[in-house]
Amino acid sequence: MNTAFASHHAKRALPDFDKVLDALGAWVLAIVWISPLLFATWAALQPSGTALGLDFSNPLTFENFTYVWNAVPWIGYFTNTVILVTLILAGQLVLCTLAGFAFARFEFRGRDTIFILVLLQLFILPEVLIVENYAIVSKLGLFDTALGIGLPYMASAFGIFLLRQAFKSVPVELEEAARIEGCSWMGVLWKVYVPAAKPVYLAYALVSIATHWNNFLWPLIVTNSPDTRPLTVGLSLFGAPETGVDISVISAATIMTIAPLLIAFLIFQRQFIQAFLRAGIR
Amino acid sequence: MTAQTPFIQIRSVSRVFNGGNGVHDLSIDIPRGSFVVLLGPSGCGKSTTLRLIAGLETADHGTIAIDGKDVTNVPPSKRGLSMVFQSYALFPHLSVAENIIFGLKVRKTGKDEIKSRLTEALNVTGLEGYEDRKPAELSGGQRQRVALARAIVAGHPLCLMDEPLSNLDAKLRHSVRKDIRDLQQRLGITVVYVTHDQTEAMSMADIVILMKDGRIEQAGNPADLYLQPATAFAAGFVGSPPMALLPASALPDAVIPPKTDAGRLTFGIRPEDLVLSTDTSTKAWGISATVTGSEFLGAETFVYVAIPGTSGATARLPGQVHIAPGTQVSLSWAGAAAHWFGEDGQRLAPTATREAAREPNTSFETDTAIPSL
Amino acid sequence: MTAQTPFIQIRSVSRVFNGGNGVHDLSIDIPRGSFVVLLGPSGCGKSTTLRLIAGLETADHGTIAIDGKDVTNVPPSKRGLSMVFQSYALFPHLSVAENIIFGLKVRKTGKDEIKSRLTEALNVTGLEGYEDRKPAELSGGQRQRVALARAIVAGHPLCLMDEPLSNLDAKLRHSVRKDIRDLQQRLGITVVYVTHDQTEAMSMADIVILMKDGRIEQAGNPADLYLQPATAFAAGFVGSPPMALLPASALPDAVIPPKTDAGRLTFGIRPEDLVLSTDTSTKAWGISATVTGSEFLGAETFVYVAIPGTSGATARLPGQVHIAPGTQVSLSWAGAAAHWFGEDGQRLAPTATREAAREPNTSFETDTAIPSL
Amino acid sequence: MNDMARLQKQRLALYGWMLAAPALALMSLFAFYPAIATFWHSLFTRGTTRRPSVFAGFENYQDLFADPTFATVVWNNLIYAGVTIPVSIIFALIMALWANAHIPARSFVRSAYFTPTILPMIAAANLWLFFYTPDLGVIDQITGFFGASPTNWLGQPDTALASVIVVTIWKEAGFFMIFYLAALQTIPPDLREAARIEGAGRWTYTRRVLLPLLMPTTIFVFVNAMINSVKLIDHLFILTKGGPNNASKLILYWIWEMAFAYFDSPHAAAMTILVLLALGLVAVAQFRLVEKRTHYR
Amino acid sequence: ATELTMYYPIAVGGPLTDVIDGMIEGFESENPDVKVNAIYAGNYDDTRLRAVSALKSGDPAQLSVMFSIDVYDLIEQDLIVPFDDVVKTAEDKEWLNSFYPALMANGEVDGKTWGIPFQRSTIVMYYNKDMFREAGLDPEHAPATWEELVSAGKALSKDGKWGLMVPSTGYPYWMFQCFAIQNGKELMSKDGTETYFDDPAVIEALEFWRGLATKEQIMPEGTIEWGTLRQAFVQGQTAMMWHSTGNLSAVKREAKFDFGVAMLPKHKQPGSPTGGGNFYLFKNSTDAQKEASLALIKYMTAPERAAEWSIATGYVGVTPDAYETDALKSYAAEFPQAVVARDQLEVAIPEFSTYDTARVREGLNNAIQAALTGEKSPKEALEGAQAEANRLLRAFH
Ligand SMILES: Nc1ncnc2c1ncn2[C@@H]1O[C@H](COP(=O)(O)OP(=O)(O)OP(=O)(O)O)[C@@H](O)[C@H]1O
Ligand SMILES: Nc1ncnc2c1ncn2[C@@H]1O[C@H](COP(=O)(O)OP(=O)(O)OP(=O)(O)O)[C@@H](O)[C@H]1O
Ligand SMILES: [Mg+2]
Ligand SMILES: [Mg+2]
């Protein structure tokens, strides 16, 4: 009756060759990609002056970390950075939410023109406007304050754009349902749109934090005191244009600046990436 | 219509969109406590009408009054109504319970009251035990029930529903249909219900308002619509399979009503009213037709026939019927079963005789298990 | 089953997912040129079976042969079949024409041949004039037809369809159903069709394979399933409204088949086989029940009754029937209409008598327009 | 139309404005106003004690076009953009495909790709500086292991720019990967199955289905990459300072030099305006394309 | 009380802000009526940017440490005032004369003193005594002439190690000044309005530099990275390197071998440029502030502080007196390499600086790099740079 079959137990194919290649490729690339960080870790554990040899027989040492730790008030800088990053993020979230909401759901004359203007801001590089921005911050009396560092970044075109997209993808019915249930406009925003855009917020927060955690020049320029300066200023002390840097020390300093962020990322990696995934940024 | 003032009064309301679509000069009276279905093909303005009542659209002209109060320019939240959306519009980040009490919280209802109302709504909709789930963790039917619970929890006397069942599968739709109707009757609320599914309209409505191109085609109780469709459109829209509509010119002269012009008349016959006979000699008259196919549905069989000069007709026969495509048959019907429509699509009176035969009756007996051979 | 070798032979195939779900030890023979429907409730393994045939899943055990060739480990593209997905899986960036000829192009078919096949496929599916639209610019029904056209354009002898109509509305579903069936017959291809809608299965299939929990519950032609359900599950799943299934203990002794234990039997009766009588004295026996509601559907009315000790039943009556909820009625049926199931849910033989009464017949006459009062 | 309806519309418009206003105000303050001031500034000569600033019209712009360094820098930046944009996009795509595939240790792989994004550019550049050290550096040690002779990566005109480009790609690709990863998740899996049944192999599927579907993301990423190809110069300060002999000098670095090392802010301003114009033009073209290509969504 | 805002860069690695803060504290306790905000402002470029931003937007700052060679630009931009306007007393004038003249040279323009040396370096030759021994050379005798340099270099270049490395990124003009002055020619006029790039002696100097790689093959080809050179030296990649004295402390810390520091070899004459940062006084400050600033600068450059700063950084002590302090004396005794830079100051010349200095310098840098990478011949490259410099400086004659 079943001539076509040699046996009832079908031979199973070998593990897919493609899949093995994929995994190999992915791993190799991953290792290449973090190799600078691996190298930095290695260098930071080497005595000054021997890091480049890649001589694995050398004993590991924590002296670089001790040296770097004692050199700079890291705790203070760390606190400043956290405050700064939080402040910027908070400002961005509020401003971009309001503006994104306006662009997504309100009809007003000139809306599209203004939105194009907003997008243009993406191209206006704050790096070259430092002198002008310094003057403005200084005139506003915000010099040497966290707010002064943060203010120029708060109206983020990128954020407005992302949130507008996110809000636009929220079904209108949700808004209508909320309105029928008695929500005001602000209520609709707060109770419907913001929760619906949560993944986008998370994703955006990640980008924002990574950016501002690492910002150096602007905070340096508009601050005067260690009371407001961020971590990167501490890091900059170990970069030495006049004499060339000490790789072990700078590695140790680098690792110390990014460690909090990196650890947070490693712990919340899944959530972060999921957040991005769910954000469906397109 | 009814003697007392209607609960909802829509007077000459228009809402025209840029494309010229929308609703035009609509007047509807909806009695308190009734279940009114807005029926019609896609794009005919059902949702627009509903949204006008809800206040989600603003009328260009005309007035809308709910419970004797002019609400034409009142925002949705102040109209004292609730709404169930086709997509349910559940808030995905809130749990079932939070979804249901959303409006109560917004309106700052007291904690205890919220609690008792929630319990009741969960109870009524059979959602106990699901309070803490997120909508994404529910099946379609459960989501539908949450939307329902949210609509009834506030105790508004009016509930609007826009195709609330169209995302459910056939089986579920049937049972939820019953639940909604029961609920409406139990709570004594007024429901305005939008659907394009005539079965739904027929089985649920006290009053069906059939719309077409932004205007009302026919309004009345389901039996009216089925038995006395006011227009050819209504005749074709209500009933499944739909009424066959044939040009009178394709019929034998014998059946054409006297004093009418066959060239301008349309004849309509419901599938269940068509009599098929393979023995073409037994009847005095009959339309000869060819069977093109049949569909067995368990309790009944649809037989499709081609009639020269027409787009064909469907006959609905009880039980299983094997009939080969290509078979020649003769079609006939009881005279009272015929519907006639004029050139303008309007029904031609009189057709009262047959209607009488279907008068309500509470004493009867039926056995259709064996088809009459 | 059939004398010639089956076109598709599935032998003891299992595919078990981590959760333990999937399909278990499945054996199916599908004759060439037949229209086979896999029917069953959600999660019963219909899609998995289809995907096993397609090669999108690989069997853990067992073998699959198509056209006499063992394809168990052959990739989908080499199995010589096409597939229509529930979501249609149209490529949103390609036009209708490009979507249809996607596979031909991938397989490097000659330009002229592509052109002529495309023309034919467009023709067959009635899509002429839509070649250049993007899927987003089509209605649901049109998208469905594009998916169909893509499936048939390659001329594969086997086409798999996974709930291809579930995204269409009721009206459209009905007409596309017919189209698909016609197409299959015209092209003479074999179709394996997945649905959870029993109406669809009944009206389209040559063979229905009813599945449950990853196993086959009953396989046979639609009439078999409807008239002789092999199990209580099959009886309840096929037919709408479904067959009422009552514990035999709730019935009068008179109707219980001899030599059986009423405490362990289940009795089944189709809605159209139920006889309702308000005059409880006319019959020798009858089950007393209370009407709980009714639903008018134009050609017929469903009457819902509550029977003490059971979950109730539905009677299907032709025409419009007004019967007030709360009315006491007596239920009865023709003896041949009864179905009996054992404790294990299996049908109890013999029930052949009634089947004979439904033998195919091409000469008949019927008029159900006036209910027998 | 009903008066109340009109009134309502006006009120909504007002709300819209009010919501957008704070962001617009800040933007005007820190982007638009400075940009306009920059333009104004670019019309004047550089003021010194000897020669006070005077209105010069477009002279500063003419000077730029006459300066051979301008050509070098623009050319460098074009190469920089021409390589970093496509290559980082391709890497991002490959990474996304891998990070989305079912491979072992997938979270490690994802984290690895993403890590450069959170490293400060200055720190990253310092690390790479030592990667590139001739002979001693990690790269030369590895290539040396395979018998290649040491290369002075940053010290030769023909490798300096390439070395800078590598760092940029390394820094950017992981960031863009995230966007592709997100987009990939929105593509229904049955499209792949449909393509498989139609006989499409992996490559055909990628080319004929995946890439077109990812087009909107690609455009989004492209715009970002383009902005970055102008903006991302932090590492130049550490790696090459634009050398040797301008071989790796990019526009923004040059603007920076002009403004803050040469004390020549008018020319820097003129250059800034030119960059803004060029970016604006490309952006407009991009958005046009976006609208066209994403039409089907 | 007078309040002062001072910017300062840190250009050598390490936590030197503490040292500065300590000095400021010392000053404040000696001058209780003066309050000083000493603000670390990054590297030299960042500091310049910071100062310019602040001054242009009207923020008060009274003094800053900035590149000694920025002096012409700062004058041109009308940002600074000469010390001559502030220095009143004879004692103060005396103080102006207390610095090494070589270090003062950069700050003197148009007969006025605009900058006071603070963190100043010069270029010295570091060499690996172990490698010298291995190659059979006298570890106590560093090459003193170009010829000795080449021959020692040849003996030392083997096994993939190099004899000599002279960095050519970052500050190529600075290194080039060494070759030029040793070959008998300075690169610019004292008043900063002329350059002599196309002088035959200068061209010859560049040819010699390039020849070290191409002809003598004691140095790798292409440019040599400034930032990583020290690492190459301490890991024994090269036997000799020319580098800033600012590196001394780091090399001392990192080198695991016996190393020597020597003056640069001479050719027609010995010589090396100075480098680093000077104190400048900003314009818009009150007289009281200027006075206080002067007091602060005096405090910061006083011998004790200069010695402390020198030991901490490797920079040269800015006054001869600094080397007379106990601290520096004992340091020098235990680490004689520390005084080589001072000794070399005798023959030191000012760091390259002209009007429009950054641009002129950029032209020179490019010319040097073009020659070293073989893109152009030294002559061609330098003539091009000279033409460019002429164009830029024409306005200042
Ligand atoms: N906001 C709008 N802008 C422009 N036209 C609209 C708008 N809303 C509805 N229309 C048009 O008005 C007509 C009626 O729309 P409506 O939504 O009321 O139809 P419907 O009967 O609910 O149809 P469906 O069954 O498809 O939901 C349609 O032609 C539709 O295209
Ligand atoms: N990839 C998978 N991984 C794990 N479990 C799966 C997978 N695919 C299917 N299943 C499980 O296998 C069972 C059968 O799934 P299948 O998709 O075949 O059901 P179905 O009959 O098609 O149902 P539906 O009508 O809902 O489509 C289900 O319980 C399902 O949860
Ligand atoms: Mg609608
Ligand atoms: Mg399925």
Automatic annotation (TrEMBL), chain A:
SUPFAM superfamilies: MetI-like
The UniProt record lists the keyword Transmembrane helix: yes
Pfam family, one: BPD_transp_1
UniProt KW keywords: Cell membrane, Membrane, Transmembrane, Transmembrane helix, Transport
Topological type in the membrane: Multi-pass membrane protein
Highest taxon of source: Bacteria
InterPro entries named in the record: MetI-like, MetI-like_sf
Transmembrane segments: 20-45, 74-102, 114-136, 142-163, 201-221, 247-268
Principal location class: membrane
ABC transmembrane type-1 domain sequence ranges: 78-268
Entry similarity comment: Belongs to the binding-protein-dependent transport system permease family.
Protein name, as recorded: ABC transporter permease
Native species: Thalassospira povalilytica
Automatic annotation (TrEMBL), chains B, C:
Compositional bias segments (type: Polar residues): 360-373
Keyword annotations from UniProtKB, A to Z: ATP-binding, Cell membrane, Membrane, Nucleotide-binding, Translocase, Transport
Domain of life: Bacteria
Domain named ABC transporter: residues: 8-238
Coiled-coil annotated residue ranges, if any: none
Region entry Disordered, spans: 353-373
Family: Belongs to the ABC transporter superfamily.
UniProt protein name: ABC transporter ATP-binding protein
Species, as recorded: Thalassospira povalilytica
Upper classification of the organism: Bacteria, Pseudomonadati, Pseudomonadota, Alphaproteobacteria, Rhodospirillales
UniProtKB/TrEMBL annotation, chain D:
Keywords attached to this entry: Cell membrane, Membrane, Transmembrane, Transmembrane helix, Transport
PROSITE patterns to which the protein is assigned, alphabetical: ABC_TM1 (PS50928)
The keyword ATP-binding appears for this protein: no
Spans traversing the lipid bilayer: 12-36, 78-99, 111-131, 160-184, 205-227, 268-290
Any Pfam family: BPD_transp_1
Subcellular location: Cell membrane
Domain ABC transmembrane type-1: 74-285
Principal place of residence: membrane
Membrane topology: Multi-pass membrane protein
PANTHER family linked: BLL4140 PROTEIN
The family this protein is said to belong to: Belongs to the binding-protein-dependent transport system permease family.
The protein, known as: ABC transporter permease
Organism: Thalassospira povalilytica
Lineage: Bacteria, Pseudomonadati, Pseudomonadota, Alphaproteobacteria, Rhodospirillales
